Amino acid sequence: MIRSFDEVLQKLKSLETKKVAVAVAQDEPVLEAVRDAKKNGIADAILVGHKEEIEKIADKIGMNLSDFEIIDEPNVAKASLKAVELVSTGKADMLMKGLVDTATFLRSVLNKEIGLRTGKTMSHVAVFETEKFDRLLLLTDVAFNTYPELKEKVDIIHNAASVAHALGIEKPKVAAVCAVEVVNPKMPETIDASLLAKMSDRGQIKGCVVDGPFALDNALSEEAAKHKKVTGEVAGKADVLLLPNIHAGNIMYKTLTYTTDSKNGCLLVGTTAPVVLTSRNDSHETKMYSIALAALVADNMKK
Questions:
Q1: pLDDT band at 71 (very low <50, low <70, confident <90, very high)
Q2: Superfamily per CATH, domain 123-258
Q3: What CATH number has the domain spanning 5-117+271-301?
């Protein structure tokens, strides 16, 4: 079981080097992340975008472009689609969003001819390493699905579990987090949480154990769970936090990012290959860790 990003990087050294296709690569933090990923043996890259702009940024950050393949495509939509095609045809193992708006990028990902769709719900997974915990913590969905319904939540759980499995967590503990740890008919999220728990009990959700509803404290703290008499395999020991909607997820993501000494990486999953989908405001370190996570997930998908 991998417990830190240092362990992620160490694990990747024993695996075949993966390749990431970067859509619209002329972005400084993205190129810094790609440069550092190459330097640390995390992944190689194919840079798709405006070659002249890529060269200007590379010169500014001291990046040796002779180590990378560049496909010159100044048109943003065409560059995005070309990067997706590289992944769907097996020339790259994963995809990364560069200096392209999310809508254009996702249209390429969902392209009917060469896209990465699977027919299931796509979802965002953020993986955090914090000083407080002795394990990595997975949050979902903090950036993609707005108000997921029960069926979508099942797919979101399976997607997060696939990332957890790549991290060596054989049976991830998934907590369906709400404002309270009891079922309240006036709070629909608690009803969904209880249904997901029962579906898990009956084997309708595979590869993990799901319980809920949980308040955040008794999902993460064994002491809080004991104090509130919340019991079960997941109570106080959650590996994955299933957030009820994008508001809760996004606020928690940014709270951890800006108020704690933490590291994180982000992926879009539920696709035929992992997709690095980070915020424009994310640091190049976060983007590099996201590439590392994608490489680990891509390797696990091939097994």
A1: very high
A2: Isopropylmalate Dehydrogenase (3.40.718.10)
A3: 3.40.50.10950
